[in-house]
């Protein structure tokens, strides 16, 4: 029994990595293309060469295409979690399995998590089985306030690597009790942030703005790639967003001022009280990544946590994405399931359904890249077929495609369930 | 008053034996049966009513369409369809909505893990007393801050009864308290009258780590050390219990000197105190069942039982329930083998299983936790119907508290604790529209304010809602 099960797992993993030349047609889908507020009923989704070819109502299936029958169930773009530590943490209480932070002195904004990403993590496989195809994996704070380092955009591929784009964001952390005594006041944290960017901005002005562009141009060579100055230069040059983890209204407003003063793309993460500055955030085009399950005053910075924060922000015109769903135990251990549950909670608290779905597809891609998160022709075919409403946590992902290929949804939990299922006999 | 002989049991004993407050309990009344912190709970204002036009999940495995529930004097009188009732009884039309027993959370730290967390919680938290691995003499109710926002949030999630447990750093964590999450200025006013006593014990990583980390090691640093420590303590408790028995039988002239640690364990040995045992791994649970067998007591429930699905027969034969999560796993070594279908697999195997929270966030949505576990069960071919799944958060949970004849089921004679849901209670979109405790409306989502802020939140949350 056990041998047979293990054999089937091994076969499935092998087939998941096979190169697929054949086009695929998903038929009879309730297709959430995310290009409209309503799904297309009985849609045919054609996929070839890893990309979406077309989505059409009752569309014909080309000869030779492999057909997947959705039987009327929802099909969505792959789900993306905008704040996880997937691939960086295996067992949070076991230090030797954690790579999400640098405690070494002198490693600041240049700290890049991407070399540490583990595609074989059991957490990654479970998230993939839950319909998660992409995520931002972010570093925790470093030794150098207020920076954490560079986050990576990951794609949950099964063929050896999950890194999609290194340096997808530079992360800073600001707030009460966030840093030890040297930067104990958030005023000091903002000062350190401004000083760090001011120094690099001065260097760029000194060489006609070419400094920081990795030496492309006529001026003196820029800072070495990956160095703190280069990384901050990429933020100043508009190539990388600055993700600021912060919660209190005063810090949200200070982040808006910072974004204006330095003309950089800022993304608020955490954002417990962002709803208090919803109009200002919308005007400044600053998106917010929320934990959609947070509704407790967990710290004095988070007294404003509320379940309808997403609805308030979205209504005001702020681009909302979701991450960290449920806090530490959920953000990576259940990065797929609890993100969907969180989006469902946002709907239960006033967010339109299609907007909640956008928060975990289109909006996440608008922040971090990797396609636009729609089921439109030409987009990467990261697609999930569900057995029910994807925002219901009781719903299961039936088929997950990444870059046009059905990937294995085997995971360690399922293997354990199958091993012990014979003991669950009715008495 | 010396703090003895004020509880219901003790009062009766004192009256019958003509003894007032004394530093020892009267002959024949075991000291562990005395509640030094009696309840002062009074039900909220209530009226009799007949609930009609409801989809009823009664917590006893039944599913009634267009069901009715008749409530009188805070008790359920009848559950069925087209009930006859006396004229003048207020009729409440559920409008086709779902009605279930009130949700029961068997494991919360509300009132002691009080947010916002600050430095005082790092230095000296009230979740666990850490002066010894054996703090069996502590009562968590003496630590509970009733202003915790977690209580009103839980009520809004349909929770009508909850057990506040001490934390898991000590091996013997102390007495629990069973409360209704209603507004109060002291815990006695929330405490369920005449509820059985509960006790918290812990095995595995938490207690051994606590002591290994301590500068002055005062407890076991390994699993084998923990088990030895437990056996040693129960041997002493057995002697203590026997000494009380000899005194009660008149074979000893004077009572034993009271020992608050030993008497909690003696109460467990006597079957008067329900054991809530924090264990993750199947081998830890199996070992603890052996220890319980050796000393002749029952472990009511394993909490955080992430590997319970590996030992259904052991649990079933011991009559021990498993309190589990919907999806927490992996954050520590003893949690690596968590599976989401745990509850469904245990239910299929005939084990009493309950969803517990351990978290003020999760504790607002135990119905959704059950739904997650149900969905995971469906994925491996175990399709649990709603009338069965509801038992995971109602009647099975009541059994863990030792209150299965009183709460957790909609049946004649039970306390009228129930919830009217806005939608299928196993949907993420469902909200508790009306929460009834002892026949009284404790929360009505339609009547503003939607929730009463705790004293902490009052005047602090800034501008009103935009």
Describe the structure.
Chain B: It comes from Sphingomonas oryzagri. Chain B: This is Amidohydrolase family protein. Chain B: Residues 447-466 are annotated as: Disordered. Chain B: InterPro entries: Amidohydro_3, Metal-dep_hydrolase_composite, Metal_Hydrolase, Metallo-dep_Hydrolase. Chain B: Residues 343-443 form the Amidohydrolase domain. Chain A: Residues 201-217 have a biased composition (Basic and acidic residues). With 427 residues, chain A is an alpha/beta fold. In chain A, 28% of the residues lie in helices and 22% in strands. Chain A is built from 12 helices and 16 strands. Chain A has helices spanning 2-17, 122-129, 186-206, 228-236, 249-262, 278-283, 309-316, 328-331, 337-348, 353-359, 362-368, 412-420; strands spanning 24-31, 40-48, 51-57, 66-69, 74-77, 79-84, 132-137, 147-155, 163-173, 242-246, 266-270, 288-290, 320-322, 383-386, 397-402, 405-406. In chain A, the strands form 2 sheets. In chain A, strands 1, 2, 3, 4, 5, 14, 15 and 16 form an 8-stranded mixed sheet that branches. Chain A has an 8-stranded mixed sheet with strand order 6-7-8-9-10-11-12-13, with helices on both faces. In chain A, strand 15 (397-402) and strand 16 (405-406) form a beta hairpin. The radius of gyration of chain A is 22 Å and the shape is globular. In chain A, 57% of the residues are buried. Chain B is an alpha/beta fold and 466 residues long. Chain B is 26% helix and 19% strand. Chain B has helices at 8-17, 119-123, 149-156, 205-213, 223-248, 260-269, 282-295, 312-318, 342-348, 366-379, 386-389, 395-401; strands at 49-57, 63-72, 75-80, 90-93, 98-101, 103-108, 159-164, 172-175, 177-179, 197-202, 273-278, 301-303, 321-324, 353-355, 418-421, 432-437, 440-444. In chain B, the strands form 3 sheets. In chain B, strands 1, 2, 3, 4, 5, 15, 16 and 17 form an 8-stranded mixed sheet that branches. In chain B, strands 8-10-11-12-13-14 form a 6-stranded mixed sheet, with helices on both faces. In chain B, helix 5 (223-248) packs parallel to helix 7 and helix 9 packs across helix 10 (366-379). The longest helix of chain B has 26 residues, at 223-248. Chain B is globular, with a radius of gyration of 22 Å. Chains A and B meet through helix 8, helix 9 and helix 12 of A and helix 3, helix 8, helix 9 and helix 10 of B.
